Each structure stands twice: as C-alpha cells, then as structure tokens.
C-alpha cells in the first residue's frame, strides 16, 4: 500500500505537547497533526529546519534534543539562534550517550 492509504487508515489523537512542524516552520495545529493529508505532505515536502528551529527559539524552548547518529543538527540549531533568543541547552543524543554542546 502507498503511504497515503496507510496514513488514512490510522487513528490520530491530539498531541499532549506543542509540536513545531518541519513542514511549515511554525507550531502545528491539532487539526494538522490529526490529518493524513498533513503527514503525506510532511513526507513529500521540503524540510524547513531553520524556520522550525527559529520558531522553537521564539517559543522559548528550554532544551533542544537531537535524536540521531551524531550532533550535526545541534550546530545548525545554534546557527539559527537569534541574539534575543532565550538561553537553552542544545543536546545531541547520539549512540545512547548525551553530549552537551554550548
């Protein structure tokens, strides 16, 4: 089955935490996150990483955690921190180890 078919068969629930979309670069709405169409666009669309990280800084996120094999995105997140952004930890969780970037 194609991705859309599977996505349309899933039961979605409203998120319990705020979610910043890499599809839009802003806070995602409950309607978006509970829609198969949103997830199809998320898979096929361009990633707006910089916009999403800037939105996290604007929302005064306390910590950013990178889940992946290395800390590449942590450096990119720091590059997108504006001068007026709140201090926050940017931490990669690579290979089961936590390493702090400052």
UniProtKB/TrEMBL annotation:
Superkingdom: Bacteria
Keyword Chloroplast recorded: no
InterPro entries: Ac_transferase_dom_sf (IPR001227), Acyl_Trfase/lysoPLipase (IPR016035), PKS_NRPS_Biosynth_Enz (IPR050091)
Keyword annotations of the record: Multifunctional enzyme, Transferase
Entry's Gene Ontology BP terms: fatty acid biosynthetic process
Keyword ATP-binding found: no
Example GO molecular function: fatty acid synthase activity
Protein name in the entry: Uncharacterized protein
């Amino acid at each position: 089955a194609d991705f859309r078919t599977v996505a349309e068969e899933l039961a979605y629930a409203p998120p319990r935490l705020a979610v910043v979309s890499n599809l839009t670069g802003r806070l995602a709405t409950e309607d978006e996150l509970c829609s198969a169409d949103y997830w199809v666009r998320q898979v096929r669309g361009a990633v707006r990483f910089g916009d999403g990280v800037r939105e996290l800084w604007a929302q005064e996120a306390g910590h950013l955690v990178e889940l992946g094999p290395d800390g590449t995105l942590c450096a990119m997140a720091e590059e997108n921190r504006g001068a007026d952004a709140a201090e926050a930890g940017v931490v990669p969780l690579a290979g089961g180890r936590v390493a702090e970037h400052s």
